Amino acid sequence: MKLALFTHLPWPENVSQKDVFQGAVEQVQVAESSGYHSAWFAEHHFTRYSMGASLGVILGHMAAATQKIRLGTGVIVPVLHNPIRIAEDTATVDILSGGRLDVGFGRGVYSYEYGGFGIPEKDSQKRFRESVLSVQDMWTTRPVSLEGDFYSLRNIDLVPSPIQKPHPPIYIAASRSAETLEFLVENQFLLCIAVVQDTKHALELVSRYKKLCSDSARPSNMSEVPFFRYVHVSETEERAIEATKQHIEWIQDIMQWRRFLMDSTEVDKSILDWRRERSELPPSYEYIRENRAFIGTPEQVAEKILYLKSEGIEYFGANFAMAGLSQKEILATMSLFEDKVMPLIV
Asked: 3.40.1170.60, 3.40.1120.10, 3.20.20.30, 3.40.50.170: which CATH number matches 2-345?
């Protein structure tokens, strides 16, 4: 089983932005030294939930700080950008990394991210598909001209060009949309599974993906399909719960909060005020631990990963950097994962 690292670069209150970025660099370097196949970063905007606003810049820096580990966007939200800029930035990172880039795309889910860029949510599926295919065309064809419903390209000669041929691998984050799943299978793209999906539903999605691939007479390439989960390993179950509960709850609170913010962000608001004002609760820590996160002793975490393996998962991604968890704690759990979980699963 291949291993990946994932982070959305959360920035809770009373945490330094600089420390979050520097901590992520160290985490990726540790993952590389431990034999991980890849490290992935999520794009989000205008929020403490994630500081992944400039993935090209982040991955360019990560490329310089590493030697072998692949670097992935998990995911770029292409509808927020001009596809020319996406094609240029990703091609540049592919060169700087020596051909180590994996490019994941997704539609995103938060209204204010669209609103902040002045992008209507209407027709986001069509806009998404047109953008992804435009980027692929610019990577592989010179020049490119097209008049789409949302984008116009006129004699575009992409410079620089990506090293990987015909282009960097393309991943699509799908959830419940049959349309998205059909789009990625039809275009020979790869699936990636996000941390925000329940494990049961994510495995059902993988089954649908494999069936569509089989029906289309194309390989599913399951060894290239990352399945991401929150992960924390401690010597005892009690210690694992104690170390992660408030951080998982913060993540759930802010994800819920953002769904209610249509015209503003939560950055300079108090999460304590939100907790007092809301009329419903997000998924509980116990629910997340049972359904989305692998938190516990080495044996408990390994058991969950081995279950995924029995269901055909060959590529497991771990998000150790739960919001506000100290760098010391993150590195300690990564070390324990390497020493006591990896021998049981790899």
From this structure: 3.20.20.30
pLDDT tens digits, one per residue of 77-88: 999 999 999 999
Which CA distances in Å does 260 have to 52, 223, 224, 253, 257? 21, 38, 35, 11, 6
Cα separation, 132 vs 213, in Å, equals 20
Strands 315-319, 227-233: pairing kind: parallel
Quote the crossing angle between the two packed helices 178-186 and 124-140, to the nearest 10°. 10
124-140 and 83-96 helices cross at what angle (nearest 10)?
Answer: 50
**Total-model pTM:** 0.97
Report whether 41 contacts 106 (CB < 8 A).
no
The full set of domain ranges for the chain reads 2-345
The tens digit of pLDDT for each residue in 62-78 reads 999 999 999 999 999 99
What stretch of H or E contains 172?
strand 170-173
The pair of three-digit structure tokens given for residue 48, joined into one six-digit string = 């403490």
Cis peptide before 160 (omega within 30 of 0): yes
